[in-house]
């Protein structure tokens, strides 16, 4: 219990630091976002209207920076991430809520599948080293070196060109109304196949390589020799003794990958113009939409912290040594 409380306290402090940096960093960026908004709108506003915009976006110069900081915390506790410049007057929370399901469905599912498949293949390749399973290693090594976006461009060229079976961009067909009906779901799945395969191929290769290396290390441990000497079956030794211990380093990596799901795979979403959080972040940077950038970074940071906290708790179940005090 002491270990759990200590980890929770650590992550709470880290969350406070991340939120504080998230508040001060946009204010340190050169430029005036309110004036940029007025320029894009091509409107003429009097001094009172301009001052109202500064107050609305929490940038009132009449307030001290500490007062703005406490107001920002009050907004966060109410679930208010501010207003988007690009989609003004739409709240940032609504913009993120519209794009987040796309990212969770695409990157979330492919991340879990790639971890399961890659870990399974890595266990087999490490345990049955020198057999035919090792044939997958040159392939996975080559695939893991290919960037997401490059493989995405190749996939678009081969399968989404003139008369290709898959669309090259977007989340659903033009004219389809988003909703929980078969027409929209089928269109969304059709548009997600190419980016999903792109993410799956490149990310799965990394899990195979890391798990195989850990299996080779664990297979040389004394407790594996003892397990064989006790007459345990090959499958039980591989799964319960070798794979369970070899999996420990991958837990942290998988937790980090789960946390980064919220941010999406930025380059893949840009290549396929997929309407996820990553593509939204890219658009926000180009439009200098500071509130939206700030909100997305905050959501990504908190999701990574929560995922790592869950990984620490999983460690308690997988490794009894972490439950020992001192």
UniProtKB/TrEMBL annotation:
Residues 100-311 form the ABC transmembrane type-1 domain. InterPro entries: MetI-like, MetI-like_sf. It comes from Actinophytocola gossypii. PROSITE patterns: ABC_TM1. Keywords: Membrane, Transmembrane, Transmembrane helix, Transport. The keyword Cell membrane does not apply. The chain crosses the membrane at residues 7-25, 102-128, 135-162, 182-209, 246-272, 292-318. It is a multi-pass membrane protein. It comes from the Bacteria. PANTHER family: OLIGOPEPTIDE TRANSPORT SYSTEM PERMEASE PROTEIN. Belongs to the binding-protein-dependent transport system permease family. It is found in: Cell membrane; Membrane. This is ABC transporter permease.
């Amino acid at each position: 219990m002491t270990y759990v409380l200590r980890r929770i306290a650590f992550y709470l402090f880290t969350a406070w630091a991340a939120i504080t940096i998230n508040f001060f960093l946009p204010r340190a960026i050169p430029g005036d976002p309110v004036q940029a908004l007025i320029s894009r709108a091509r409107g003429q506003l009097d001094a009172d209207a301009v001052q109202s915009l500064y107050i609305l976006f929490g940038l009132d110069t009449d307030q001290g920076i500490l007062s703005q900081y406490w107001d920002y915390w009050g907004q966060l506790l109410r679930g208010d991430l501010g207003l988007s410049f690009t989609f003004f007057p739409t709240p940032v929370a609504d913009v993120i809520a519209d794009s987040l399901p796309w990212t969770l469905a695409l990157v979330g599912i492919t991340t879990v599948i790639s971890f399961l498949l890659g870990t399974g293949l890595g266990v087999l390749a490490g345990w049955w080293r020198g057999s035919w399973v090792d044939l997958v290693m040159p392939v996975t090594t080559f695939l893991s070196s290919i960037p997401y976006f490059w493989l995405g461009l190749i996939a678009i060229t081969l399968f989404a060109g003139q008369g290709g079976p898959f669309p090259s961009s977007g989340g659903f067909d033009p004219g389809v109304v988003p909703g929980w009906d078969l027409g929209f779901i089928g269109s969304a799945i059709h548009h997600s196949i190419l980016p999903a395969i792109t993410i799956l191929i490149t990310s799965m290769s990394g899990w195979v390589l890391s798990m195989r290396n850990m299996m080779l290390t664990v297979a040389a441990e004394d407790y594996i020799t003892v397990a064989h000497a006790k007459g345990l079956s090959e499958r039980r030794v591989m799964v319960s003794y070798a794979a369970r211990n070899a999996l420990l380093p991958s837990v942290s990596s998988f937790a980090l990958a789960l946390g980064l799901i919220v941010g999406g795979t930025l380059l893949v979403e840009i290549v396929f113009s997929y309407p996820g959080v990553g593509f939204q972040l890219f658009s926000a940077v180009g439009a200098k939409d500071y509130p939206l950038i700030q909100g997305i970074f905050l959501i990504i940071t908190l999701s990574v912290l929560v995922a790592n906290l869950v990984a620490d708790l999983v460690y308690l179940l997988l490794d009894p040594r972490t439950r020992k005090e001192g």
